[in-house]
Fold each of these.
Amino acid sequence: MAIAGKIKLSKSEVSQSFNLDEIYGRKPTSQEVQNFIELAKERIIERSQSGVDLNNEKFKRYSEDYADFKGVSRSDVDMTLLGDMLLSVNGDATRNGVKMSIDGDEAPKAFGHMTGFKGHPTIKNGPKREFFGLTNDEAELIAEAVQEQTTSFFDQIDIASIVRNIGLVVDDN
Amino acid sequence: MTTKIKITGLDVALKSTRLKIGRAIAKGNFAGEMREQMIEEVRRNGLGDPLAPSTIETRRYLAQHNTTDKAYSASKANLTFTGALLNAMTVKFLTSRLSFIIDASTRKHKRYKKGSKQTISHREIFDALEKQGKNRSLSELFKRSRFLSNLTTRLKKTILDNYEN
């Protein structure tokens, strides 16, 4: 049985539950829950910033206007303008595992990206970019990594992608 | 003269990852490398507006009585005469804040032979240069795309070489 539940999508809630009982055969410890949340969060951020969606496909390209506004090429899609939406990925313990979600204020924005801006008053047929959530394979890998108390696999993925985006600026504050 | 340089693009990294990145930067002594690169950039490509004719004349006169740095040229605005001023520049890295602090020694600058009898500290000289309004602040270096790109590449390499899970 899959441990990754279906992604819930509404303007007020973007979430996905994971049944860790199913893989561990017992209730997860609070430390395991916490580690799962951390790694799931890192995985979603890392994958999104590398330009790939939940289905391991490249995100749809930006429009010419938006790419100009952001100052990047049309194919450089990383779901990050200020970073607020990806930073709002979070998780909570549930009865049998973890529920990952987008924190309140950013949920409508995430809903828009996940659904191609369904119901949006001005954007019609917007691009669908499914950045949030984990596949069952990803969730199982994370659950196993948590149980083995090793995070090196995910750390290695993260550091290369994070370092790629860094820069240096004068801090005027 | 304190100038603060911060690392951008780490907003989405988790706190634990940022801390490890900070440790990698400290371990690789990137602050020392940044200092060297800044000095080389100023000496090679200059900093700020061209020197006034009177300044060039004074530099030529003083050069007859003092040992000058190999990067010295009378007419070049590269903050270099004996080399002591740029050598007094310091770059300190704050691991937890992922920021670099550029400052200078408070030691007095050595008097030039046949020069003014007044002595002030290296830091005061940098402050005075900033106040001149001739773009001689060291922060100007960080507006140069080639310098910045080169420095960022070195920073990335330092992190990847020294990052420990």
Note: Residues 145-162 of chain B form the longest helix (18 residues).
Amino acid sequence: MTAPLLDIRNLHVALPEGSQRPYAVEDASMRLGENEILCVVGESGSGKSLTARAVMGLLPAPHVRVEKGAIEFAGEDLTQVSQARLRDIRGSDISMIFQEPMTALNPVMTIGRQIDEVFRFHVRMSGRERRERALQLLADVHLPDPAQIMGAYPHELSGGQRQRAMIAMALALDPKILIADEPTTALDVTTQAQILKLVKEMQAAHNTGVLFITHDFGVVADIADQVVVMQGGRVVEAGPAGQILNHPEHDYTKALIASVPSLSPRPARPRAEEAVLRIEDLNKVYRGGRSFFGLGKETRTVTAAVDVNLDLRRGETLGIVGESGSGKSTVARCIVRLTDADSGRILLDGEDLRPLGRSALRAYRSKIQMVFQDPFASLNPRRRVGSIIAQGMRLQGTSAETAREKARSLLEIVGLDERAFNRFPHEFSGGQRQRIGIARALALDPEVLVADEPVSALDVSIQAQILLLLDEIRERMNLSMVFITHDLRVAAQVCDQLAVMRHGRVVEAGPTAAIFADPQDPYTRDLLGAVPGKDWHPPQAAEPA
Amino acid sequence: MLAFWNRFRRNRSAVLGLGILTVILIIAATANLFYPEDPFSLAGRAMSPPGENGFLLGSDSLGRDVAAGIAHGAKTSLLIGLVATLVAVFIGAIMGAFAGYYGGWIDDILMRTTEMFQTIPSFVFAILLVAIMKPSIESIIVAIAVVSWPGVARLVRGEFLALRNREFVQACQTVGMSDLRIMLGEILPNCLSPIIVIGSLMVATAILIESGLAFLGLGDPNIMSWGFQIGAGRTLLRSAWWVCAFPGIAILLTVLAINLVGEGLNDALNPRLRERQ
Amino acid sequence: MNHSARRLRYVVKRLLQAVPIVLAIVVLNFFLLQLAEGDAVDVLAGEAGSATPEYMAELRAKFGLDQPLLVQLGIYLKNVLFFDLGYSFRHEMPVSELIFDRMFATLLLMVSTILLAVGFGILLGLLAATGLNTWRDTAISIFALITYATPLFWVGLMLIVVFSLNLGWFPTSGMENIAAFHEGWDRVFDIAHHLVLPTITLSLFYLALYTRLMRASMLEQSGQDYVTTARAKGLTERRIVFVHVLRNALLPVVTMAGVQVGALIGGSVIVESVFAWPGLGMLAFEALFSRDLNLLLGIFLLSALLVVAVNLVVDIIYSSLDPRIEVG
């Protein structure tokens, strides 16, 4: 290997006093070569993002700072250079793209001006020349109608377009290094695939060295040349992508890779005859902004569900998959009656729930319960865990004593200590909170559990545990489950049946294994094709963590 | 509670404010003890400068003791400020809660009403209300409350709007909890902090409005107040500056102290801000 | 969609939204009038000293006061539409005429106050935020904290004590020296001279408000992601503060400037009465003393309409600063 472009040696990033640990990054070393993509992988809190920011000199000063170590770029130690020199380097030699392109762009400045700034601050060029270069850049990242995009504001573009514009801006001066901090995490899977392709294409065209921060091993498999695995601020393993992905050495890497759900669907189980829940011709249109006094207002409508038909049999898990805006969450909300559908039937054991009023519905409430996505928003921060779980039972008329008893036993079922009963939600981690949420949903002995993206806010190792728990509970309590997810890997592991949604319609439905093996709808094929790391088959460890 | 005090204590100016406020509270509580006489009564020689003829802060053209007026005025200001704020917070919280939780046409009607009340120049409206109802302590409280609630309504609506879509509220809906119970038992406890903060800042504003009304001659004629003292003393500016100056300082210190405490509460109750510091 | 076309639609929408608010204010005004003890005829009768019940009934019929409430409301709405706000028996003039006579003085005071308060507020806030935790920031913050807590009328009186009575720099009251019969530029300077103290008094509180808001807004915006992006592009801190952060930070300040106009009118009542500034506030103060409710209500209605109008202007300014305005 030739001399590395970027050589990080023994980097220590100190956290302010009183933090949970003294160093966010401790003794981290890594090298990035020319024309190479180095992926830094880790879960939240691993220090991967701060490592990237340290390179750019963008640590949140004055609290977080580089204490020891060197970041050498082309013979210069970036931790030692002056602010002025650092400014010269930023944007021209090293540039960066971020996770959330909406907030990373200035909302009140046109895309054109934001790109133009890069030129103005680094090179001498006429206005005309700058404009031509900017147009060329926008065309290079495959944005349609570059002239129009130049004059547009960030909110007028889609998420994918914004990230493309960010990439154009970052590559404006042909930097030697591009730092990408989870650039596809906020995007839908098909968009993510396009952006990854673009990053690779640009990297190859310009011989750029890319430092790519991600939590997703699928993404790593798709683009990485070299991989660094971080845990708790330390580098635990580093090496060529093929070696790390297929023959991990370190226990933590092994456990992480083992937690990545496999894309091969689990073996099909015989399907029960008895239908528990049937959705027939469900329709839902959101009408926005129509108001009583609102003269001259336009009404905006969003079609969230069109003639949706679903069929959930006893004991099975039905997955609803789709990208954002597909209507999958709306369908879930209609089923638990958080949202009123416009028309159609929601048949639970043959009884149509849709027309029922609030009081009539109360008797059926307990039969369908929900597990929510966000473990932090789904528990009332002012209530004790015991009361959160027992609340529903008390409302249904259970005595306080019985409800308490049952809440304790539920805590045990979801794998929490009984002492959790008297604690407040903020004392628990994300995964533990999700367990509490599951216990609450189970408290009323439901027949159907609707889980809306229950693991998408969790780290991959926690995700695996929660999926395992859900499966276990479904088996043990003979539950039927509706499982909403955007992640086809997760769907492959937990769902017996699948319904693929797009723009409010079910485009394809059937047994999971059948859909994965032979997708009929072109959109389903796109979705499957966009799954990151689809050609990589993680070595299955004997014991998943 | 202790943790809360420790957080509050970290803001030194808030502790200073609390100190000043405590002194003013003590003055208000002991007014009758030190100045048992009616503050409107003649207490000695007219137009005495501060420190002379036994007047700590001087006397006015009718020989009324400025210091006695300030001590009794403290009671008036604090009482009106507090009661008017409580009434305003009560009205505002109910309006805001219903508008935020139910949305739709209820929100539309309530918020357009709020908007209208915010458009109306509040001090002019207060003057008008007191003038129509005849000046009295009750009418002043009603007037201040009527012009102050919209701020609370907007705040509470915003909080309810955000919390109503939180998943823990949806979880309560899926077990069939009644709306009223969700609003009172689940959402309200989660937005108490901002309500307390805005309430404390509103007490300061209410005191300013009250003093302005009294200055214009719209105070309760039977009750001593700081604004009245300044209004009565303005003709003496040339000869007896102290009649206006000291009550004004009293208002300034009180309002300042309450604002400091309010900001301290905000820092201590708002965890997001705490992290930023 | 074309940006300017979108902005135009937004303005039209805001204009239409103002209509029900204006209507509601007029209706509220009508009911306040009903709430007040006695009607115009009682006042007239009181003025005249003696009036027979028959004569009063006749008068009521003439004014439509014997009609059902809703019909009266209709008459009132019609009158307001033609700027007929009733008659002030004290001044023996139509209310609308009285108001228009005094409007200029108030508008002058308000415009100079807004310019001073918003301009210096933004400047001070910017200075405080850019020198975070230095003596500059501390001094500005303490200044803002104290002026924020000071009652307007007291500031006015104390300024008179210091600058008029002791130093003799500025006149104590009035809008111009009428006895001097100034003309042309002399008159302009004379009015400007009289304007200084009232403007400072009225603007101090709002200056404090905008300073605090601007400082907080700057700090909030400096923590946003786009600032990190700007830094990652290699821009100078100067450029980041003055181009990226400033424009975003101005948005809440502009919004607040609109919201505070109503309060400003309330403040002008006090300031005008302190400095005997012959504007609407002074007129309201006089009306208050002579219990001329008709006039007071007229002033109230007009000031509310003024706020609606200013809010519209602010909305238009805002829409040119923020491309994200929603039309839908």
Note: The CA atoms of residues 281 and 307 of chain A lie 4 Å apart.
